[in-house]
Structures are given as C-alpha cells and as structure tokens.
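hey team, just a heads up i'm posting the complex here instead of the shared drive bc the drive is being weird again. everything in one block, sequence lines first with there labels, then the predicted structure for the whole assembly after. its four chains so it's a bit long, scroll down
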Amino acid sequence: MLSLESITKTTQDWLFTKFNPQIALTLECVFVILLAITLFALLGLVLVLLERKVAARIQIRLGPNRVGPGGIFQTAADTLKLIMKEGLTPDTADKFLFNLAPFVVMMVAMLLLAPIAFAKNFQIWDINIGVLYISSVSSLSVIGILMAGWASNNKYSLLGAMRSGAQIVSYELSAGFAVLTIVVLTGSLQISEIVAAQQNGWWLFKGHIPVVIAFVLYIIAVTAETNRAPFDLAEAESELTAGFHTEYSGMKFALFFLAEYINIFIVCAIGATLFLGGWMPLHIGSWEAFNHIMDYIPSSIWFMGKTFFLIFVIMWFRWTFPRLRVDQLLNLEWKYLLPISLFNLLLVTVIAIMGWYF
Amino acid sequence: MYTETEIIKDTTNLGPDGELVVNMGPQHPATHGVLHLVVTLNGETIKKIEPHLGYIHRSIEKMCESLTYRQFIYVTSRMDYLSSHINNTACALLIEKGMQIEVPERAKVVRTILNELTRIASHELWIGAMAMDLGAFTPFFYAFREREMITDIMEDTCGARLTMNYIVPGGLMYDIHPDFQTKVKAFVKQFKEKVTEYEDLVTGNVIFQSRTKGVGVLTTEDAISYGCTGPVARASGVSCDIRKIAPYDAYDRVEFDEVIETAGDSFSRYMVRVKEMNQSIRIIEQLIDNIPEGDFVGKTKNVLKLAKGEFYQRVETARGELGVYIVSEGATTPYRIKFRSPGFSNLSVLDHIAKGSKIGDLMATMGTLDLVIPDIDR
Amino acid sequence: MGAISLIALLVAAIAFSAGGILVGKILVKGSCNPQKGQVYECGIPTTTSPWHQFNVGYYLFALLFLIFDVELVFMYPWAVVVKKVGIVALIEIIVFIFILFMGFLYAHKKGALKWN
Amino acid sequence: MTNEEIKTYITAHTPEATYDEAGEWLTILIESNHLKPLAAVLRGQPMQLDFLFCLTCIDYKTHLTMVYHLTSTSNRNINIVLKANVNIGDPIIETVSDLWRTAEFLEREVFEMFGVDFLHHPDLRRLILEEDFKGFPLRKDFEDPINMIKL
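-- predicted structure starts here --
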C-alpha cells in the first residue's frame, strides 16, 4: 500500500545510497524546507477559505462563491491582493523590531511543525521531549506579538500587545497542565510514544472524566493562546481597531494572519495527537473486523480528519460567542481554569498510579 | 515626524499617572459613524471620555430656515436615518397642528404601522450592530434577515429603503401598495417565529450577559437630569414614552405596554429594546386588519403657511423623544427650527456612565446607547 | 531527522516570510505621501507617545505566570516517571501543588488578580 | 396644577415674570438676570420640573432669546416654556447646567452656534465646530457664500 511512510522511507534510502551522507542530509533539508513552505501556503489557503465558509454557513449566507468553483480560489486571490499592497512602516516606529516581528511569529509557527506526527512514521523530528518542546516554543509566539505591538508606536497596538501578553502567558498554564495529564498517563514526552499508547483506544475515551476535563481545558486554553474569539482581545477590532497588527499592511500583515491560522492548525494537531490518538485509527476493544476496516483508512487521513474537526470547533466558537472583557478573561483563567487544572492533574495521577484506565 | 528626543519631550504632557490619551473615532469600527471620542486611559481603565462632534454636521436647522414647509420634511429623513419615517411624521404632525389640517383616518393608521415597522427595523439593526461591538458577528445576519423584509415592505410602499419621504402634511404621499397588508402579516408571522433565534444567540449567552450586566449603570436621577429619553431612560425606570404621554396618530386607540426596566445597565437597555419590538408587533397586529378605507391625504393648500407663533411637536423615535420646535413669523418658511434629537442627550451621558470602566465596557455602553451620529450632529 | 531539521525549518520560515515581503517590494511601486508614515489613530494625528510607563495590572499577571511556569517545567520530569514511582510520587506532588497553591491563594488574597 | 396656580406661584417668587398663553403651553418671559433664580424655583419643590427636554436660542436680529422647555417626570401634564431675552451685542446668561445636567451639552451647542456666553458653565468649549471656525452659524446675519443653500 502506498503510504507516506513508504514514500519517505524510499526517498531516504535512495538519497543515502546515491550520495554521501552529508549531501543526502542537505538534500533532505531542502525537501523539508520545500515541504514546510508548501504546507504553510496550502494550510493558509485552505484554513482561511474554511473559516469563511464556516462563518457563512453559520451566518445563513453563502460565503465566497465567485472566484473558482465554489469560491475555492478566493483566498489565493486575496493573497495576491495582499502581496500587491504596499507595506508601510510608520515613521515613528522602531523599524528594526517592527520588521522583525512578523519573522519571529512565522519562525515560531514553523518550528512547531517539527515534532508533529502527520501520519504513521511521518514526522520531521521525533524529539524525545516533544511535548516539552511544543510548550516551550509555543510560548515564544507572545514575544513576536509584544514586539509588533510595542514597535508600532501606536496606542491600540500597545494595548493589544499588552493584553495578549497577559492573556497568552496566563492560558499557557492551563494548556500546560492539560498536556501534563496525558504525559502522566503515558509516561513519555515523545509524540510517537504518546500516539503508540493510544493503540487500543484514544485517551479521550479510555482516560475517564479527568481526561475529558483536560481536553475541554486544553481547547479553551488554546483558543485563548491563539487569540481566537471569544478570546481575541489582542485584536478586538471593535475596541482596538486591529490590536497589535494595526500598523501592519501588505505582506507583513499577511504573515501575521497566516501565522494565526497555522497556529490554530498546530494546536489542533497537538490536541488531536494527545487526546484523539493522532494518526491512530479508531479502534474499539475486541471488534476485530471493525478495527481492521478502520486500519484501511490511511493514517494521514485520520490525523487530518481529527485536526480539522478540532479546527472546526474552534471556528464554531468564534462565530457564536461575543468577546470576553480583559478582566473577565484573566479571571476565568486564574480563578477557575487554573485551580481546576491543578486539581485535575492530581486526579489523573491517582488514576495513573492505580491503573484505573483501560 | 518625531525624533527620539521629541518623543521623550512629548511624555511631559502626560498626566501624573502616565495616562494614555487615545482617539476613538472618527474612523473607528465601534463608533458606527464619525463620532470622535477622546478617551483618557489608565491602563485599561477609562478616566475620561470627551466627545468631539460635528464630523457630519450639515446644519439642517439652518438649511430648513430657507426651505418651505413642504420641502423641509425631506431633509429630516437624513437626521436619524434609521427612524426617517418617524422624523417625517413629527414634522407633518407639527404642520398639521399649526394649520389645523384634518388628517384622514386611513393615513393615521398607515402612519402608525409604518412608524412601528421603522422602530422594529431600527432595533433589529441595533441588535446586530451592538452584538458586533461585543465581538459576536453572527446575530447581525440574523437580525438583518428580518430587517430586510421590512425594507422590502418600505420599498413597495414608499419607493425607498432608507430615507422614505413618504409622509406629507395632511397624510401620505401615495396610497399604500395593494400587497401591503399581506406582506406586513407575513413579516409579523416570520418575526414571531424567528425572534427566539437571536434571543437564544444573544440574550441567553453567558458571555453576553457578563459583558452587559452591571455595565454602564445609569441611575434614574441621572437619566432624568441628563435628559435621556427612549429605551435608554426607560431602562433606568423613567417613564417617558411620548406615545403614552401625548398620543399622536393612532396611538390613542391601540393597546400596548410601555416597557420599563429598573436596573439601568446595558443589559436592561438591551431588554427594553427587545421587548419593545414585541410591543410594536402587538400594535401592528391590532391595526393591520383595520386600515380604514378612504382618502390617504387630507385637503391642504398648495402653499403652506404657519400662523405667527411657536409650535412644538414631540414623537417617540426608536431612540427616544424627538422634538420639533418651530418659530414662525407667518412666512412660507420657518423663522427658526430646532430639532431636539434624542441621541444628543443620550450621548451626553456617556462620559458619566462609562467613567471608571474598561475599554470593553465602553463598547457595551456605547452600543446600548444606540447612537446614530447624523441624529446627534444634525 | 535530527536537530538539523530545526535549522531547516528556521530557514524555511525566513525564506517564506522574506520571499513574500520581497515579492511584494518588487511588484509594488509605492506612492510617496508624508501622511502614510503617520501611525493610525482613527484619522486624528496622535498627540502623546505610547512609549511610557504603563499600568502595572498586566505585569502582575506576567510575574505570577513566571512562578507557575517554572513549577510547570519541574512537573514534566515528574510526570514521566510518576507511573513507575507510584504512590510516593503522588504524595510528593500533592505537597508540591499544595505549596504552590498556597502561594497562589496568597497572591489572590493580596489582590494581585484584581483589576484596580 | 393649572396654569393659573402656576402663575400665582411664580409671581410670588419672581414678580418680574410675564406670561404668554397663546401657544400650546404656558410661556414665562423673564429678563436674563432673573433666569437662574427662577429656574431654581421651578426645579425645586413643589413644581419639580426636573426634565429639561429642549434648550435652544432664537435670533430675533435685535436680541437673542433663550428658550427652555421644561416638564416634570412625576407629572407629565405640566409643560412650561421659559424664555429669557439676551442682549445680542454682549450675550451673557447664567448657566442652568447645575440644575439640569443635559444643559451642559445643549449650552455648548448654543455657545458655538449663537455665541451666547454661559456664566459658570463647567466646560464651555466648542463641541461641534472646529476650533478655527469664524462666526456663529445659526445667527441670522451669518452668511457662507460657498456652502449655503439659497432659495
């Protein structure tokens, strides 16, 4: 069966037999670069279109439907428009930081791709501290936002950046604790092992209520971490026009925009990996026939399906809820989510030690 | 622009606590028009709000002084463009009162129905826009679905969708469209079915409630002292419905309740408007089957002349009490005309009730005051 | 692939961002207008600079976060071995979280989480 | 309260007031220097005219007239129009914004449109017009050759 696993394996074997190891590695790097860029571009196009279609669906309208069949080229046209826009830098801005910020945001988004298992054995770097790596790198994104907001020398940007600083770091904790529950259950930080541990069932199903709580906490926390409504205070357009990226235009704005969507994809992919088994097909106990049929669906489809389901949930939030106020947002985290997370972690520990999971 | 030293120098004109002065508007997504607020912030907390008006001032009052009594009505559609029917009604009523023109029953009833439809349309737009201020985009489209039906009815009847200019001194400009009654009934039916939808989406929403309850509280005394009218004052427990106090047109023969809430916060302002829409539907239901036959316009002279004296007419627009005050010297044009616009007084309360709250609260407060800038600026 | 993939990804990110911006720069001929250099403040020339002391409210949350985040990092190694160590690990983490939570309650009591 | 009762009550406090009952509502005419005490009387017990629903000015070319429309929220049947003539060359009148807060904005509007100076107003600045605007647009002698409609 042709799978991503076999393709990568054949390519690697072929490279290493044809060239000496250094050149082979370099070529592999070039492949990774090309693939990553393609993935970025594709994800940007697909997710923005998906967002607009989901929004339209919820808002009883059609959404983009003129450019290409069903409007599928709409985002491509939008990207073209954004490229053609003039990128302005305010005279009073800190020009170096102003121009650096989109790069930082992009780099963080890109680095997060490394440990994600897109399919069976299809992973850029199966780092043994994968979960920790994700936690640490994802908290860097706030630096890009703070940089953008501060360097713009714009009051809305500054407020937006300050808000998002407080917000992202706060929700980082809940997300961290939610991830920790799975680490406790699995006993490993490596993504491939976490996925392998879900061979006979996804953690969401076999981990009892604490894992469900952790899952809910995780979804809430990452919605806030990616600055999505109802937690989109950093760019609350009715309050701060466009928040931290008010001054950005053209391609620099597009990079922020793209990074936001890539971040959504990444957090959803991690959520799918930790709680929904990543690329692992749906297996139910002893139903051999059912499990066998499920195995026929390629692992990449399983992974993408789960990820896009979570993305849809997050989009659904955005188009249903009003925005929270900044103090309510921080109250929610510090007064409710954080104590619940701590307590939940203890609960999971008990379950893990007692072996009360399937 | 600035050099570095200049920026450092610039900080000297800050307040002692390092307050931040931010301009909100005229090009701001939440001011819904060209309202310019200079907001002094301390962190996220609002210290002071200073409205700067006039970006859309057309000096309608001055303009009306050189327009005849038939002409100036059309200018008033451009004041509060969401209540243009009601503005026109106010002017027509004033001229009818000044010249003792008999208005046919048919015209009175149709005017009342159209006024209530306008009120619903205005509140629908407001619900959508306010929800958008709070970051919820979806209610806007749900509200516009019903509003679209009203604008269609208006288009059939008046030929216009926003600035109707359908009401003339003495009655109506033309008779109603033959389909008017069926269309209005269809609207009433649909509205009753669908109104629950955005109540589910907005009223019951936990985040919406926490954003609006206890936010921008306007006490009864302040509401009276600041001259607030309409839903803003009624949410603070002030009974101020002109339709009850000084009934005009067919309001004296219909049954409806004046909606009064007592909390005075943004949420009760929201509730007043939602309940008011239901009352408007009630009024329409009572009248739509009983439109009397007969003339649609009374006998008037070609050239209207008000007797020397002063005239004042009040009506209840979707935003509150609109007063038209005319000083006549007996000529074909008014000597002095003054529009007492509800939005102007409602805006003046903004600084008072939003002080000390967060920027996010300002959006909730401003949204529920339902400001229409052309109405404030005139 | 090993750690070298990170360098590859960084290169990819820079290439992607710089490529996009450069293409824009090449294709677009910007017009010159002094007003384009002004910061956006709803169309009104901005009067005061935002680069000055700012309300402390946000920083308190950042400080609190620092404490918690460091603790969170301590928990990762613990989480990996908790199943092997067993009940002792549970007791230890209860003590750990208890102390942490006390600190949190203290901060709460002091009003660090309140907005002026 | 009937009009007669109101008249006797006001005359007791302010003998200078004259009355005009030609219009829809009772109109009280007063000199500008007596306005503030009378307004305070009307605002207080037992009249309790706590709702100033319209404040404006009329330019009669020879003089300006300030017009205050008052009503009471406890008794909506009482409506009183208060008028005070102001010298056009030197228009100064006492503010009523401490009695009715709504007057604060309305007086600012009158200030820039008619040039009436309100004494003791807390914040008498331009609200609508730009800072460098010349003239008082709603006065009869105001001419704007470019923007005005003339029929």
